[in-house]
Please model this.
Amino acid sequence: MNVSPLRDLLVGCFVLAGLLSLAYLSVTLGGLSYRGPGGLQIHATFDEVGGLKPRAPVVIGGVKVGQIKSIQLDGDLRPRAVLDVDPAVGIPVDSSASILTSGVLGDQYIGIELGAEEDVLKGGDEIQYTQSAVILERLIGKVVQNLGADSE
Amino acid sequence: MLGPAVVRGAPSQEQEGDRGMEPTRAEGHAALDIARDPVHVAIRGVRFSRGNRLIFRDVSCDFLRDRINVILGGSGSGKTTLLRMLGCLLRPAEGSICLDGALELTGLRLAEVRAYRRRVGMMFQGGALLDSMTVYDNVALPLREHSKLSEAEIRREVHEVFRSVELKDVDGLLPAELSGGMRKRAALARALILAPDLLLCDEPFSGLDPATLRVVEAMLVDVSRTRGVTMVIASHDVPSTFRMAHHMVLMVDGEAISGGPEVFRASRDPRVEAFFAGSRP
Amino acid sequence: MSGNPVERLGRGTTDLVVDLGGLARFAGRVVVAGSGRPWRLRRLLDEVFGIGVLSISIIGLSGLVVGLVLGLQGYNTLVRFGAENSLGAVVGLTLIRELGPVLTALLVAGRAGSAIAAEIGSMVVTEQLDGLRMMSVDPEDFVVAPKAMAMVISMPLLSALFITLGLFGGMVVAVGIVGGDAGIYLTSLESSVEFREDVLGSLVKALVFGVLVALIATWRGYTAEPNAAGVSAATTSTVVASSVSVLIFDFFITALWRV
Model:
C-alpha cells in the first residue's frame, strides 16, 4: 500500500486547524469559556436594564474589565445583574454602575465610574449606586407629551 | 448464508472427477461432443432488452468446463451483455442461466451473488483497474478483502500470479502508466488471484497490436492448460478464435449459434457465412 | 442506464425521492464502512486530503475576501447611524449564521463535489465499479462511503476556517482601513455571538450541507450514464443540484433553528 506521510501530515494539520477554528468560535466567541474561577463576581440592581444582555461588556473608562454573567429579577422584582470582572482591578466600594449604549443604536454595556473610597469591592458585594438604561422610546414619549402639554 | 454452502459443495467435487479425465479429453478434443461433455454453464431461453431494443430474443448455449469458450459476434450483438449476465452484473428478463446443473444465477440474492463471484474472475475490456491504486494494490485487493492472509503471504501470491502472466517490476506503477498489453495482463492477474473456476474475459484482444495479441492469446491458452479453469471469452478477433477455442458461440440476431470450431469452419448457415465473410481459415 | 424518454422523464422527476432512498441506504453503509477494517481509514484519509486539504486555499482566500468586503460594507452602512462600534457584531453574525456555511458549501460543491461526481462517473465508464463488484467488493462501501464520509467531516472544518478567516478580514478593515480599535471590534463580536443560536446553528448547517453535497455528488456519479457525456452531465448536475438544495435547506434550518 502506498502510504504517504506528507499527505497524512497535511490531513492532520487540516483537521487540527479546523478544530481550532471551531474551538475559537465556540469558546471565545460563543461564550462557552468561563473567565476562570478567579473572576470577581459583583452584583448591581437596576430599575430598568433595557436591552442589556448577558455577556455584554463591563467597561471602566472605555476599557473592558469584564462581562455580565447573568441578569435575573430579585425578590423585589427588580432586575439584578451579576458582573464578572477582573479581580486585579480594584473597584472602590462607592463606585457607580450605569447602563450605557455604544452609539445611538448600538449594543448596551455597563460602564463603571470609580468612587473615591480606599476599600474595594469583594466577591458577592453589591454596587450601591446604579443608573438604569435610557429607553429611547420612553424618552421620545416624554418629549412628545411635554410638547403636547405646552401647546395647550 | 445458506447459499454459499450449497454453491461451494457441489461443484468442487464434480471438478475433482472432471480433472482426472483431463488427458482423455485433450486427446479427443477434435471430436467434441456437446451432449456428452460436462457442461459448466447452461444458458436456456434467455431474453433481454435494453430500452426499446431487443438484444437477446432467445439465447440458448452451453459453456464447457475447463475449456476455452469464445463468444463471437458483431458489435452490439450482445457478447459483453452475455458475459455480464454470467457475472451476475445483468439479469435476463426471461430464461435460465444454470451452473453445474445446480446453481440458477437468475434467482440469486445479493449475499449469494457475492459468494458466487468469489469463484469467478472477470477481465474487463479496459482492464477496470482502480486508477487511484498501484498495480500491486489492485491485484492484492481481492486477497485483502476476502482472505486472512498476512501481508507477506499476499506478497508471495501476488508475485506468483504476476510471474504466471509474465509481469515484472510493475508493483509500484499506477494502471495509467502501463502499456495496453501490460494492462491486459494486470487485469488477467487480478482476475486469477482468487483461483476462480470460471474466468470471463471481455475483449481481451481489443486495442492490441498483432504481436501483443499473440502474447496475450498464448497466455490465455497457457492459463487454461495449467489452471483448469472454464474460460469464456468475448471476442471479435476471428483468427485467434479459431486457433484457441474449444467451443464457439456466435451471437446473431438475438440468438446464439454454438458448436466446436470445426462445426463453424464447415457451416453453410447463411448467418454464419455472413458473419465470417470469407475470413474463416 | 438508458431508457426511453418517458422512463427518463419519470426518472428525472423521481430523482429527489430516489436520492432520499439513497440517503437512507447510504447511511447504513457508512456505519458498516466506519466499523470496517482499519485500512478503510486509509481511504478515508486520502479522501479527506482530496476534499478538505486541497480546498483550504480556495476556502481560506474566499473567507478572507468576504470578510474584507463585509467589513467595508458594514462600516459604510453602520457609520451613517453612528453605530460603527457594532461592526464586529455585523461581520460576525453574518459570517457565522449565513455566509460561512453557505458559501463554503457552494464552493466545496463546485470544487470537490464536482470532482467526486466526475471521479465516480469515470469509474462507471471504465467499468471500475463493475470490476469491484466482480471481486465481491461493494463499491458503495469501498468507493462511495469514504468519499461521502470525508465530505461530511471536511465541510464543518472548512466552514469554521472560512468564518475565522472572514472575521480576521473584517478586523483588518476595522483596524487597518477605517482606523478603528481591535478591542472594540472583538468586544462587539464576542458580546453578540451566542453559542447555541449562532455557533451551534452554523455547525448544524455545515454538517447538513456536507451530507447534502456528499450524497448528491456520489449519487450523480454513481448513476452517471456510462459515457463521456454522462460524466459531464453528472458533474454539472451535481453542482446545480447541490447548490440549489444547500440554499433551500439553509432557509429551512434558519427557520427551524430559531424556534
In short: Chain C touches chain B through 18 residues (CB under 8 Å). Chain C has one domain: 40-257. Residues 144 and 218 of chain C are 6 Å apart (CA to CA).
